[in-house]
Amino acid sequence: DRPNYSTQVACCKGAYAGQMSGKCLSELPSPPTMAPTGAGGAGFYYPDYDTAWSEATCRNTRPVPFGTGGRPTYSTMLACCKGAYG
User: Fold this and answer.
1) CB burial readout 56-71, b (16+ within 10 A) else e
2) d(CA 22, CA 9)
3) I need a surface site. Which of 23, 49, 54, 65 has the fewest CB within 10 A?
4) Against a cut of 0.90, is the pTM above it?
C-alpha cells in the first residue's frame, strides 16, 4: 500500500526527503533555488550607481546588484539620497 500525497511538494518532502540529487524538488513547477529572493524590498536602501548621477536615485529592490560591503546602505530612502547624492 503506497502513501498518497495531496501535492507534489508534499510527496517530495514525504517520500524523497533524503534525496541527495534533488531530482524530485527540481521537477516542481516553481522549484526552490539555492539563492532565493525574498518577497518585497531588500530591507535597506542603496545608491543606484548603475544609472547616470543626474537621473539616479536610491533603491531597495532585489536582487541587490553588489556584494556585502560593496556600496553604502541606509535605513531610509531620505538618508540614502542625502548621503549618496547630497
Assistant:
1) eebbbeeebeeeeeee
2) 12
3) 54
4) no
